[in-house]
Amino acid sequence: MRRNRIEAFSDGVLAIIITIMVLELKVPHGEGFDALRPLLPVLLSYILSFIYIGIYWNNHHHMLHTVEHVSASVLWANLHLLFWLSLFPFVTAWAGENNFAPNPTALYGFVMLMAAVAYYVLQQRIIATQGDYSLLKRAVGKDLKGKLSPVFYIAAIIFSFIEHRISWVLYVLVAVMWLIPDKRIERVIDNDN
Q: Average pLDDT of each block of 10 consecutive residues along the chain (193 residues)?
């Protein structure tokens, strides 16, 4: 299979995930801005999760740009990633609607951790399929951000039962870390051309 089919399917799933998340934002009862105050946790969790989905979409696009053909193992690894991403609306709503309480905060982190693991598995399946000299292997290099993110997620899960606000700071830090444009794949592709 060529990569365009897996890209189109993944893009569609991610668009649906974002749609489901935004549907969780309920219209406030009242016309003043003070009516928005009780919805602030839901809105903040939505914004953070939207950013995460955007990060995954962007990195997924760049990663698949290094692939010409997709194997069955890559398809399954991609579905594994999409499964964990499809849980974002649930954990986002639960965390937001419960004012970032410890259990929802921990589950939010667990889903983020599993999405990161699934992304790594997909990346490794692509590298295994394409070979040791693949564009992706050269682009990823030591992948410090990819290795640091799960550590932050695990710390955030632990902190959710100690001081859950620290967990949310860690979730935001990971998002900020990934928001910084990553040109590794683009550089490798440009150097090959």
A: 86 94 86 85 92 93 85 94 97 92 96 96 91 79 85 96 94 91 67 63
| CA–CA distance, 109 with 84 (Å, rounded to integer) | 12
Tokens representing 180 are 């910084």
Contacts of 168 (CB under 8 A, 6+ apart): 48, 100, 105, 156
Q: For the whole model, what pTM was predicted?
A: 0.90
Q: Do residues 70 and 2 touch, judged by C-beta distance below 8 A?
A: yes
CA 21 to chain CA mean position, Å: 14
164 token code pair: 């859950």
State the SS3 of the chain: CEHHHHHHHHHHHHHHHHHHHHHCCCCCCCCCHHHHHHHHHHHHHHHHHHHHHHHHHHHHHHHHCCCCECCHHHHHHHHHHHHHHHCHHHHHHHHHHCCCCHHHHHHHHHHHHHHHHHHHHHHHHHHHHHCCCCHHHHHHCCCHHHHHHHHHHHHHHHHCCCCHHHHHHHHHHHHHHHHCCCCHHHHHHHHHC
User: What is the pLDDT, as a whole number, of residue 193?
Assistant: 57
Structure tokens at 18: 């974002």
d(C-alpha 126, C-alpha 146), whole Å: 15
